[in-house]
Specification:
about 25% strand; six-stranded mixed beta sheet; alpha+beta
């Protein structure tokens, strides 16, 4: 019996070694070129197979080298974006699960690039100008019971003074209005009273002087009368969009049915509280513990009156138990080995895959429970919210290989539940039961 176990262990070790060699060869060897019509090899690295393991990051030029070392396979990739964005795309595949929303999002980006981007000089009647440069990015998400929210960010945006900034802001509003009238009705799955809202907001502290407003990290919008940063919110309801097809002119529609709001920093109450909450949420799910879900970055957020605060949390289950994708790779390579080796290891591969997914399910459920507890306990710090407003945490995590757990879910609770907990009217357990997971 001992000899059989030893023989089985040696075969498993041999297979694991061959897996590493095969994975390495596969990742580094380019595909053979046709002899009759030579095709130049592209100057890019071949995409590695998805694997989990211990991740290390090394700076390399303008980007980074991210190496993931697993127990029986490895992969190296290069990205010019941040490591956290790489992990998000790497582990989730980076493919949109809402292609309809993705299309209209790209339409908004394209409209802004055509009408606002590119180092243009925008002159006022007094001959003063502003330089606009950088690239726009738009994020979009659905919020049940509200509708769709678009967030505009930009890599760098600069104005020469408040008056010119106001001119540019008005043009941005015009672009958003045109987008809503042209593409808003193409967003499926909305109820008649649902809203389509586009936000352009300040997310990083800006430097403001008497004559110059400089901004790095995201889009900055200023009011026509001053150089103060503001949050711009443009909204329309789904049912009102139908009026465009019943004789209402676009000019009348802009004036009557599209809501445009500019919020000064002093009026954006609770912004500091929201930032602290987001940072604490990131710290709560840090990488200090293995075998658990972690936050890949500090959640982004937006506050919308009458709705509440919406946080966007990207998570991953980096840790020793996160081996399910490795097992998939192992299965693929095992089939390439001799039938004898594949037959001997088939049961072990299946057992490991089952164990890995059991661990994933346990981590997933623990993550949801811990997130619910955090929201109901620390939600009281967002004391500017009204009782009917909500705290919404929209979560994206890697998918599961052999289970039906969703890779996206929302944690939603109204402020009155948190207030009842703070007042001692209900217990923590009772408050947690009032939290909705969609």
């Amino acid at each position: 019996m001992k000899n059989n176990n030893m023989k089985r262990t040696m075969k498993l070790g041999l297979a694991v070694t061959l897996l590493g060699i095969s994975a390495t060869t596969w990742a580094q060897t380019p595909a053979p070129r046709p002899t009759q019509e030579p095709v130049p090899e592209p100057d890019v690295r071949p995409a590695p197979e998805p694997v989990y393991g211990t991740a290390t990051t090394t700076d390399w030029g303008e980007g980074q080298v991210i190496t993931i070392d697993g127990n029986d396979s490895w992969a190296t990739a290069y990205t010019s974006s941040s490591a956290e964005d790489f992990f998000f795309n790497y582990f989730t595949g980076g493919s949109p699960t809402d292609p309809d929303l993705q299309l209209v999002t790209e339409a908004l980006e394209e409209m802004m690039e055509q009408r606002l981007q590119g180092g243009e000089q925008v002159s006022s009647g007094w001959g003063r100008s502003a330089t606009i440069y950088g690239g726009y990015n738009v994020g979009a998400s659905r919020v049940e019971g509200y509708g769709v929210i678009f967030n505009i960010t930009e890599s760098s945006f600069r104005f020469s003074n408040g008056e010119v900034a106001g001119i540019v802001t008005d043009e941005l509003v015009s672009v958003i209005q045109d987008f809503l009238m042209t593409y808003g009705d193409l967003i499926d799955g909305l109820e008649p009273n649902d809203k389509i809202t586009v936000l352009a907001k300040e997310t990083i502290a800006s430097t403001v002087t008497a004559n110059t407003v400089r901004r790095s990290g995201s889009l900055m919008v200023v009011s026509p009368s001053s150089s103060n940063a503001v949050q711009l919110r443009v909204s329309v309801t789904k049912k009102d969009l139908g009026k465009l097809y019943s004789g209402t002119s676009q000019d009348d529609f802009r004036a009557k049915y599209i809501t445009v709001e500019r919020t000064e920093p002093t009026e954006a109450s609770g912004n500091s509280q929201i930032s602290i909450f987001a940072n604490l949420l990131k710290k709560r799910f840090s990488t200090r513990e293995l075998d658990r879900f972690v936050a890949l970055s500090t959640p982004t957020f937006e506050y919308i009156p009458d709705l509440g605060v919406v946080f966007h949390l990207r998570g991953s289950n980096i840790g020793r138990s996160s081996v399910a994708p490795v097992i998939i790779t192992t299965e693929r390579f095992v089939r390439e080995f001799s039938t004898e080796v594949a037959d001997d290891l088939a049961d072990e591969v299946e057992d490991e895959l089952d164990a890995a997914n059991e661990a994933y399910v346990e981590q997933y459920e623990n993550f949801q429970n811990q997130l619910v507890e955090f929201v109901v306990r620390y939600g009281r710090t967002l004391n500017f919210l009204t009782p009917n407003e909500r705290i919404i945490v929209k979560v994206t995590v890697p998918g599961c290989t052999k289970c039906d757990l969703p890779d996206r879910f929302d944690v939603v609770v109204t402020k009155d539940v948190i207030d009842d907990l703070a007042a001692g009217k209900i217990s923590l357990e009772q408050a947690a039961k009032k939290v909705t997971i969609n």
